[in-house]
Amino acid sequence: MPMLPSRHYVSDHTLFIRKLIEDKPDLRQQQIEGRQLWWDKTPEELARRRRMDKGRVAQPAYVYYQVD
Asked: Which of 35, 32, 15, 33 has its CA nearest to residue 23?
């Protein structure tokens, strides 16, 4: 029968994360702000992004060769 880990065992990773959170109490708020900046977008922002993407001009395969 395999041995089960001790109920009181705490991994190095868990200790590191706990210490990090203890040392930087504002870390959770920074994570929330970072997520809002990069990921959480309003429907208006997404619609504006789609309109901008529709207006893009396709870049030619070889940009240094001018086709006239």
From this structure: 15
Tokens read off for 24: 């930087």
Total Cβ atoms within 10 A of residue 27: 13
Residues 22 and 25: their CA atoms lie apart, in Å, by 6
Contact 67, 60 (CB under 8 A): yes
Q: What does the pLDDT read at residue 48? A: 94
**Does the pLDDT of residue 6 top 80, yes or no?**
no
Return the structure tokens found at 13: 């990773």
Query: What pTM was computed for the model?
Result: 0.50
